[in-house]
Each structure stands twice: as C-alpha cells, then as structure tokens.
Design a protein that fits this description.
The chain contains 14 helices and two strands, in the order H-H-E-E-H-H-H-H-H-H-H-H-H-H-H-H. By secondary structure, the chain is mainly α. The protein folds into two domains: 3-79, no CATH class; 97-333, MetI-like (MetI-like fold). Strands 1-2 form a two-stranded antiparallel sheet. The longest helix is centred in the N-terminal third of the chain and has 39 residues, at 41-79. The radius of gyration is 27 Å and the shape is globular.
Length: 334
C-alpha cells in the first residue's frame, strides 16, 4: 500500500475515532446514564455536566499516564535492580545509587550541569530580552527577528555540526576550515583545538545552546514588551526618564513574570541537554553531562541499574523547576 494512502487512512481512523468517541460518549451520558427527562431532569442535567469534562479528558489522561507515568515507575524499579548472569534481575536496593555516587564521571557531569544551569538560561534570557527590545525599535525588526529565531528551526544535532565546523582546528600547515582558527592563523597565531581545552570547552558547547534558545526567549519577551501599556511609557518620558531608566525601571519589572517563565523553560532544556555534547565531544575532555552519562551507562556499558538511577536524578532535578514553571505560567495567565 502506498505510504500516502496509509497516512490518509490513519488520519481518517484517528479523526473519526475521536469524533465517534465524543459523540457516543455524549449520547450515553445524556440518553442512558442521566436522561434529561422525568421528575429528576434537572438533577440529571447537573450531574451530566459535572461528568462530561472528565469523559472528554479521559483519552488525554490515559495517554499521559501510559507514556509518562508508567516509564517513571519502571525506571524507578530498574534503578533498584541489577542484572544477573544468565538473565533476570535481583534486588539491590540503593546500591546502584551508591555506585553512581562513587564514580568521578558522575560528579563531573553534575559539576558541568551546574555550569550549564548558571550560564545558558541567564545568557539566553538576557540576549533574548536585548534582541526583543532592539528589534522593536528598528524598521527591519521583523527581518532581524526572523534571523535570530532561525536557529530554533535547526535540530540540536544540526546546530552542533555547524558549530563544530566553526571550532574546527587543523595543523598549521593545512588550510583551516573553521572560521575561528582561520582568523587566528590569519593574524599569525597557532590553531587552537577549542573543544579539547578542559573547563573552557564547556563554555564553547554552551554557546551552541545559547544561540538556539535566544530566538525562543526573544519571541516570548517581545510579546510581553508589546503588552506594556503605552500610558506608563509616556508618563515616564514626560517625567524625564532616560531610555535606560524606562527599560530597566518601567519595562523589565512589568514583564518579570514572563522573564521567569522563559528562564525556567530554558533551565528545563538545559537539564536535558544531550545532543550537543554527544555530537561535539561525546563527553570527552571533561565535558560530561548527566544525560550523556545516562546514555553511556544504558547503551554503552549496558548497566541498566546505574543508568536508571541517573535518569531518576535528572527527573528529581527537573521536577521542582517544572512545578515552578507551571505555577509561574498560571500566575502570568491570571
């Protein structure tokens, strides 16, 4: 069967199934379970209206439970087990967590993740806010916004390949294809292998994520800046405030809840960063991060116990920020 025809059938079945579910669920609720007739018509209508939202939400809740809830429980279970020779598992309690905590690579990943958490959300939000403010004040602002937002359309792996070429370094007798080393050699210096310099190579990797996330921050913050009432800006201008005073003392405080939402959203992305490190250094030269450490344990060392334990650590780190992000977003909507 032609793939396009298969896709069409899938869409018809999917859409038809949704429409059928909601139609027959309504019919069952209104005609069979709580019919709107007889002496209890009023009470039945009220009860049907109370149950109806939960019936409509049931498919989404079921899918969420299946694809989010079950993996969490299974990962927790695997983190407490150990594979035994010949197949099967045995209960080891917290031994996997103890083994993970005793490995220098784990603490290297924790340290690097902390650097990522400090640098990337702060720079992405700051550059996004600056870009939002400046592009709103120039005629070709929409063009500039499109260029800044364009990296968001590139996958992390694609962005990593681009920046790996930027950082590329070859022996001095060869032609440099990396733009940074081409400039350095052109100025009389020696080529630099940026990605192999311990400690600093982490910041070279962070630049890739900042480059990608700045466009996201700019779009959200630009919408927030445009929502500021013009009256407050005009009043500040009449009172003699300078452009910097208007920006930092009038605009930024008014959009601070949005800034917090952007910052926490990027923080969640940082905690899950994997593609960039995997594609550019594969965790070598002291650039290991938690997600890459988990991948190494699960699929290279085939140590599912420690790999699952590291996955639980990532989830525990992400959960409070996720809750805070939802709380801030709901507060902003109100």
């Amino acid at each position: 069967m032609h793939p396009a025809f298969q896709g069409l059938i899938t869409i018809i079945i999917g859409v038809g199934g949704c429409v059928g579910y909601f139609y027959f669920a309504n019919q069952f609720l209104d005609k069979v379970l709580y019919p709107a007739k007889g002496p209890k018509a009023g009470r039945n209508i009220n009860r049907a209206n109370q149950i109806r939202p939960w019936i409509f939400l049931f498919p989404a809740l079921f899918v969420l439970l299946l694809y989010l809830g079950y993996p969490v429980v299974e990962t927790l279970r695997l983190s407490l087990l150990e594979r035994v020779p010949g197949g099967g598992y045995q209960w080891v309690g917290l031994d996997n967590y103890a083994q993970m905590a005793s490995e220098p690579k784990f603490w290297e990943a924790m340290r690097n993740n902390m650097f990522w958490l400090i640098v990337v959300p702060a720079l992405s939000t700051a550059f996004g806010l600056l870009a939002a403010q400046l592009t709103d004040r120039i005629k070709w602002g929409n063009v500039a916004k499109s260029i800044i937002f364009m990296p968001m359309a590139i996958s992390f792996v694609g962005a990593s390949v681009i920046w790996k070429l930027v950082y590329d370094g070859r022996p001095i007798e060869q032609e440099q294809i990396g733009i940074l080393n081409a400039i350095i050699v052109g100025l009389g210096g020696d080529p630099v292998t940026f990605l192999t310099i311990p400690f600093w190579n982490n910041f070279f990797l962070m630049i890739v994520l900042v480059w990608v996330q700045t466009g996201f921050a700019m779009v959200i913050l630009s919408a927030a800046l445009r929502g500021i009432p013009e009256e407050t800006i005009e009043a500040a201008i009449i009172d003699g405030a300078s452009p910097l005073q208007i920006f930092f003392k009038i605009k930024v405080p008014q959009i601070m809840p949005t800034v917090v939402v952007v910052w926490t959203t990027i923080t969640l992305v940082v905690l899950k960063v994997f593609d960039i490190v995997f594609a550019m250094t594969n965790g070598q030269w002291e650039t290991q991060v938690l997600a890459n450490y988990m991948f190494d344990k699960l699929f290279r060392a085939n140590d599912w116990g420690v790999g699952s334990a590291s996955a639980m650590v990532i989830m525990l780190l992400v959960t409070p920020i996720l809750i805070w992000n939802i709380h801030s977003a709901r507060k902003e909507m109100r």
